[in-house]
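QUALITY CONTROL LOG
STEP: pairwise intake check
CHECKER ROLE: data steward
CRITERIA: each record must contain a sequence immediately followed by its structure tokens, with no blank fields

ENTRY 1 OF 2
RESULT FIELD BELOW
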Amino acid sequence: GLRWRIVQRYSELHQLDAIVRSRFPAEKSLPKFPAKKFQLFRVDEGLIVERKAALETYLQRLLAIPAILYS
């Protein structure tokens, strides 16, 4: 299938989520935005992989909503 590569900061995707929620307040099937897990002074590769997978799932579910996909 079609593959996309999106390079964005977590905060930018979180802002996108806020915009989508404000433009589609009646849309009940909006997926929950993945929580940000934060660890000071340490980069945890497992955490990065987990967040990437959660964000990918979020975007796939978001684009599965026709009103959002075609807006």
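ENTRY 2 OF 2
RESULT FIELD BELOW
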Amino acid sequence: TDNYKDRWFMGMTPNYVAGVWMGYDTPKSMSGSNFCTSVFKKVMTEIHSSVEEKELEVTCYDGKTRVFPLK
């Protein structure tokens, strides 16, 4: 967000959609890389360890459906 007060990341898999937000109740500057992507990856890796792998099928803005293999 503006002035580096928050960090966030939204992502999806064929099974889940999740968002990660990091910040302070009282706004203060946050520097460094976006740790939210690391948290997202760690959580998704853990919850998918017992879920059958699927391909991600997406209908794009042009109306065409595309399939992305997830490996």
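INTAKE CHECK: passed for both entries
DESCRIPTIVE NOTE, ENTRY 2: Helices lie at 35-47.
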